[in-house]
Amino acid sequence: TSSIQTQWTMAMERSYIMIKPDGVQRGLVGEIISRFEKRGYKLAAMKLKQADEDLLKEHYRDLASKPFFPKLMGYMLSGPVVCMCWEGKDVVAQGRKMLGATNPLESAPGTIRGDFSLDVGRNICHGSDSVDSGKRESELWFSPAEIVDNESALKDWIYE
Ligand code: UDP
Ligand code: MG
């Protein structure tokens, strides 16, 4: 890659987006992937995984003292999750908007949570809340070799 291409790639954010066990069981995997694809974001990594307690404790380390933490762990351990790393312009903030509010009853229609969920403990998806956590979470759930740095053929049709 040329230095200009490298700079372009480096400028791009990454967000860790995860479809939680309820989203997987309810058959919402394709729908959620589709929304990120259609928006113009590029998939950099993806896998189906049964998470374990250690991984989830690290992922949700800031929430360990919250009263809902044990229930959250049970929820997240209840089945496989789809782990994804999405890349592109402002993907962290835009991804949070696409997901909707933490409480689905406060999520606008048109958002993923607002369209497909009702309870905070069954809100079907996760999205990184900052550029730093996008990097941290992507590197927690994926090994370096699992994150692919290919150039999208649509790049010039999505970015001016
Ligand atoms: N959660 C919950 N009860 C609460 C707050 C959060 O069960 O009162 C769960 C919910 O599934 C949420 C996750 O814990 O998505 C992580 O909480 P956070 O505050 O990070 O919300 P998010 O970033 O997912 O919107
Ligand atoms: Mg969060």
What does this structure look like?
With 160 residues, the protein is α+β, with helices and mostly antiparallel strands. The protein contains 9 helices and 4 strands; from the N terminus they run αβααβααβααβαα. The protein has helices at 3-11, 21-25, 29-39, 53-59, 69-76, 91-99, 112-116, 131-141, 155-158; strands spanning 13-19, 42-49, 81-88, 125-127. It has a 4-stranded antiparallel β-sheet. The radius of gyration is 16 Å and the shape is globular. Mean pLDDT is 94; it is low at 1-8. Uridine-5'-diphosphate (UDP) binds at residues 63, 68, 72, 102, 120-121, 123, 126, 129.
Task: Give the key terms.
9 helices, cilium, ATP-binding, globular, four-stranded antiparallel beta sheet, single chain, disordered N terminus, binds uridine-5'-diphosphate, signal, nucleotide-binding, alpha+beta, 4 strands, binds magnesium ion, 160 residues
